[in-house]
Design a protein that fits this description.
By secondary structure, the protein is α/β, with parallel strands linked by helices. The chain has seven helices and twelve strands. β11 and β12 (188-192) form a beta hairpin. The longest helix has 19 residues, at 200-218. Its cofactor is a divalent metal cation. This is Putative 4-hydroxy-4-methyl-2-oxoglutarate aldolase.
């Protein structure tokens, strides 16, 4: 397994990013990289069976799956492909997050790639969680602490198999490439460009300071519209 020492960003940066929820990271991104205001994050709802788990931050391992059609590979070739897939998932920059696109079109989610076994295996391979527009199952038996964002929950894996891995995928409107830095929690996920990652924690703190005067007056028993106007003005002056 590759440790974070060889990764493009220090582990301390990922740890700092993980202190904030994904909406806050999106807010910070609007300050640091306003040109990305409409791109780089999930825009369709995903199911999160474990909403109390903390945010995860890691490097993407990208996969395309399908389940409606049976794999055309022989049993021997399928076994070889599975090993190659696990080698891809278990190596590279760490920690890692599996990002899986279901390419079954109108039948997306027909079969679940993820369940008790895959969550346990991927956790052992150094992944923190999965983001997929496909389905997942075995929720009670899921690997403890392994986060999941999925398009649906279903009972069967049908003919599910990995068609390809390591390429560009698109999940819930978010385009991801292998090794992209991902931040995710129960709200969704966002791609963080390497060159601005270290700037986001400071921007997140700025967002919090700007929200404080507004929240204080909104939660006050002495709330008035005039006081709200004053709070909005104070908020705008914080830099």
């Amino acid at each position: 397994m590759t440790t974070s020492a060889s990764a493009p960003l220090p582990a301390s940066v990922l740890e700092a990013l993980a202190r904030y929820d994904t909406p806050t990271i999106c807010n910070a991104m609007e300050i640091v990289a306003p040109e990305r205001r409409l791109i780089g994050y999930t825009v369709k709802p995903l199911v999160c069976p474990f909403p109390t788990l903390p945010p995860i931050v890691g490097y993407a391992r990208t996969v395309a799956i399908r389940s409606v059609l049976k794999s055309g590979l022989s049993a021997e070739e399928q076994s070889k492909r599975r090993i190659e897939y696990y080698e891809y998932v278990g190596t590279g920059f760490g920690p890692r997050i599996s990002v899986i696109q279901d390419i079954d079109g109108p039948d997306v989610g027909y079969g679940a790639f993820w369940g008790e076994v895959q969550s346990a295996v991927h956790k052992a391979l150094g992944c923190l969680g999965v983001i997929t527009d496909g389905s997942i199952r075995d929720i009670p038996q899921w690997a403890p602490g392994f986060q999941a964002l999925a398009g649906s929950i279903g009972p069967s894996h049908a003919w599910v198999h990995a068609e390809s891995f390591g390429g560009e995928v698109r999940v819930a409107g978010m385009t991801v490439r292998s090794d992209d830095l991902i931040h995710a929690d129960s709200h969704g996920a966002i791609v963080i460009p390497y060159d601005i990652a270290a700037k986001l924690p400071e921007a997140a703190e700025l967002c919090g300071r700007r929200e404080t005067p507004i929240l204080d007056i909104a939660r006050s028993k002495d709330f008035t519209l005039e006081k709200l106007k004053e709070a909005l003005k104070r908020s705008a002056e914080i830099h």
